[in-house]
UniProtKB/TrEMBL annotation:
<dbReference type="Pfam" id="PF00072">
    <property type="entry name" value="Response_reg"/>
</dbReference>
<protein>
    <recommendedName>
        <fullName>Response regulatory domain-containing protein</fullName>
    </recommendedName>
</protein>
<dbReference type="InterPro" id="IPR050595">
    <property type="entry name" value="Bact_response_regulator"/>
</dbReference>
<dbReference type="InterPro" id="IPR011006">
    <property type="entry name" value="CheY-like_superfamily"/>
</dbReference>
<feature type="domain" description="Response regulatory">
    <location>
        <begin position="16"/>
        <end position="134"/>
    </location>
</feature>
<keyword id="KW-0597">Phosphoprotein</keyword>
<dbReference type="GO" id="GO:0000160">
    <property type="term" value="P:phosphorelay signal transduction system"/>
</dbReference>
<dbReference type="InterPro" id="IPR001789">
    <property type="entry name" value="Sig_transdc_resp-reg_receiver"/>
</dbReference>
<feature type="modified residue" description="4-aspartylphosphate">
    <location>
        <position position="67"/>
    </location>
</feature>
Length: 223
């Protein structure tokens, strides 16, 4: 049995989840799915970004599930507003969409995300994705807390969590890349994709180097 399956079975993952989506049908669908996942998951659902921001101002959440295609404020603008909140800098955000991600979107927003889920999906897929994320992320947070008790500064621990989360997220975002690239007046579609992928790989390489540097400076970091 995998760790995530064990955690789900014994009910040890107690989490607060906020869903932001302007489609009531999808809100009903994901509410049903979340209820089937775990009794330990408590969640709120709102049908517009403004209400979602108000929820985040009043309460703390362990995860935000955010739809990209919303009107008049889309998921990208909502993500920026979340990150500008005092308590929204590091809260994990997983996106939903019926469309795959553009390479430019991954380059621009990858640092701020924790994952992506493609619509539509079955309940079991959502449960597995979220359970595995929480299991992995809890280990990361526990590692950072252990480092703090051993004298590692708060800002270094926060940086460790951020960098490892970003590495983890980029690899998952790349699983949902659109086969098309928006070329400019000079590059062809293939050249555009090649250039964007080099940019993303460079970002990942930079984060890996920073992660490894932190592990050398502070051996208590173990992930």
């Amino acid at each position: 049995m995998r760790i995530s399956e064990y955690a789900l079975e014994v009910g040890i993952i107690q989490k607060k989840i906020l869903l932001i989506d302007d489609e009531l049908i999808f809100i009903e669908s994901i509410t049903k799915a979340l209820k089937s996942c775990s009794r330990q998951w408590h969640f709120a659902a709102v049908d517009n970004p403004a209400d979602g921001i108000m929820h985040l101002k009043r309460e703390s959440y362990d995860l935000v599930l955010l739809d990209i295609i919303m009107d008049p404020v889309d998921g990208w603008d909502t993500l920026a507003r979340i990150r500008n909140l005092p308590n929204g800098v590091d809260i994990p955000v997983i996106l939903f969409s019926v469309k795959n991600l553009q390479l430019d979107e991954i380059i621009r927003y990858g640092n701020y995300l924790s994952g992506f889920i493609k619509k539509p999906f079955v309940d079991a897929e959502l449960c597995e994705t979220l359970t595995e994320f929480f299991s992995w992320y809890d280990l990361l947070i526990s590692n950072a807390k252990a480092a703090k008790t051993q004298g590692v500064p708060d800002d270094i621990c926060a940086r460790w969590v951020r960098v490892v989360r970003q590495i983890h997220a980029y690899s998952r975002l790349l699983e949902f890349v659109s086969p098309y690239c928006i070329p400019d007046s000079v590059l062809s579609d293939e050249e555009c994709k090649e250039k964007r992928m080099k940019q993303i790989n460079q970002i990942i390489d930079d984060r890996i180097k920073e992660r490894d540097r932190l592990k050398i400076l502070y051996p208590v970091f173990s992930l």
